[in-house]
């Protein structure tokens, strides 16, 4: 029994570290090209996406071909969701590390005192419940990030009004790379 608990703490520690590192180290850019027919030029819009995922901090003109047009920003700040996920990953790692220390250094006390395994179990249940909630909230935030930086969504929401009409040709060059975020969410479910 103690071997299973010991191994589960090691796995929990590694997964917590992995979730923390993949979420905080992720950075990508969504790139949109707008062809301006009057000037016969190309304007590039970069939407940077990185921890803490405040995509509203990216600014551009609603009509990139008209420098006098209004400023616009994609919708949303997902800092709360991502920071909550990272804080729980750190907390989970610390709980697993503490559990490993108890199992290694206080093995006799753990085996003799029935309250320690019960407390350990209750703490594990609380961490698992929080982990499920935080992962779900972060996954929802991640889906919204991908939605709100999409060219079609930017057009419909009026953030790129210059791309609604045809002489401007707007194309997405890169949606950004989100593999590490997918990996952090998959490892948690």
TrEMBL record:
Pfam families, A to Z: MARVEL
Signal peptide coordinates: 1-25
TM ranges: 83-106, 118-139
Topology class, membrane: Multi-pass membrane protein
Superkingdom in the source lineage: Eukaryota
MARVEL domain segment(s): 7-159
Keywords recorded for this protein, A-Z: Glycoprotein, Membrane, Signal, Transmembrane, Transmembrane helix
InterPro entries according to UniProt: Marvel (IPR008253), Synaptophysin/porin (IPR001285)
A GO cellular component entry from the record: membrane
This protein's record includes keyword Signal: yes
UniProt entry tagged with the keyword Flavoprotein: no
Localization in the cell: Membrane
Entry similarity comment: Belongs to the synaptophysin/synaptobrevin family.
Annotated protein name in UniProt: DgyrCDS11897
């Amino acid at each position: 029994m103690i071997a299973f608990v010991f191994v589960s703490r090691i796995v929990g520690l590694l997964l917590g570290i992995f979730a923390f590192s993949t979420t905080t180290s992720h950075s990508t850019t969504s790139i949109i090209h707008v062809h301006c027919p009057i000037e016969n030029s190309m304007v590039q819009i970069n939407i940077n996406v990185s921890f803490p995922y405040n995509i509203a901090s990216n600014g551009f003109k609603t009509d990139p071909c008209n420098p006098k047009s209004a400023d616009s920003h994609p919708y949303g700040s997902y800092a709360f969701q991502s920071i909550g996920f990272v804080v729980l990953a750190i907390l989970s790692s610390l709980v697993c590390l503490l559990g490993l220390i108890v199992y290694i250094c206080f093995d006799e006390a753990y085996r003799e005192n029935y309250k320690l395994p019960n407390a350990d179990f209750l703490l594990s249940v609380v961490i698992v419940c929080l982990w499920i909630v935080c992962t779900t909230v972060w996954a929802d935030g991640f889906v919204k990030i991908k939605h709100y930086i999409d060219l079609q969504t930017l057009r419909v929401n009026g953030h790129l009004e210059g791309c609604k009409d045809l002489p401007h040709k707007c194309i997405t060059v890169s949606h950004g790379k989100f593999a590490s975020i997918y990996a952090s969410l998959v490892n948690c479910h």
